[in-house]
Write a structure and sequence with these properties.
Length: 117
Amino acid sequence: MKRDPDKTAAANLTDKRSYIRPDGRAVLFGDDMTQLRRRVYERSVWRNDYTCECLGECGKHEGRCWRLINWFTMELSHKIPRSKGRDDRETNVIASCAQCHRAYEDWSPRWTKKEKL
């Protein structure tokens, strides 16, 4: 967990746990993550509707998903997974519906248990 104090100070982060790494990757918590979520949510608007930004990367469909999402159903999906080098910059996340987010890497959240067959 390396921090770049100069980049972190320049980013004006509000949560004391958030920081910027020396390579520019952001690690966000609390209010900073909420602000990122708000920016990504506003970016997902299309013709006055908020839609999933998945472009078929999940493998469930071709092209854009078009499922409607709202603030409560939207999930932040990382293009480069958090497990492979956490990066919470806006360029690395998309507004995703739950179906696309789950299918993207065939995962389940930490707080759920996968059934073993």
